[in-house]
Amino acid sequence: MGEFIMQNLALVALFVASGAMLLWPEISKLAGAGGAELGTLEATRLINQGPALVLDVRDEKEFAAGHLPKARHIPLRDLAGRLGEIAKFKDKPVIVTCKGGTRARAACRFLRKSGFTRVFQLKGGVAAWQQASLPLEK
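Above: the chain sequence. Below: its structure as tokens.
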């Protein structure tokens, strides 16, 4: 077995790296990176219960193509400079969304570090919202 590993070191390294990449999303969830995730049903309930902010961190073109109803648009790259615009939501639910989850996860981490206490990521992003046949605004 050791001889096989030594002769195929590149393949073994590729195998280990691909396995780590597959497991990384689950590991980061367990480590608390980005905060809690909400499915579309839970997000809809939270939005309907009271004052909640839906924050879309996609770029302008993606946002213009369709976004969750009443979503506030602040691209991820501008979030640090525009934090004051959403400061009144520090103790209220903030549901962060993007296309699939990567940018939303980063935004959730930043918001938590900035003192926001109830930050949630929409699991699956806008794609999951569309798949659930929920309405989008343009």
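Residues 54 and 95 are 5 Å apart (CA to CA).
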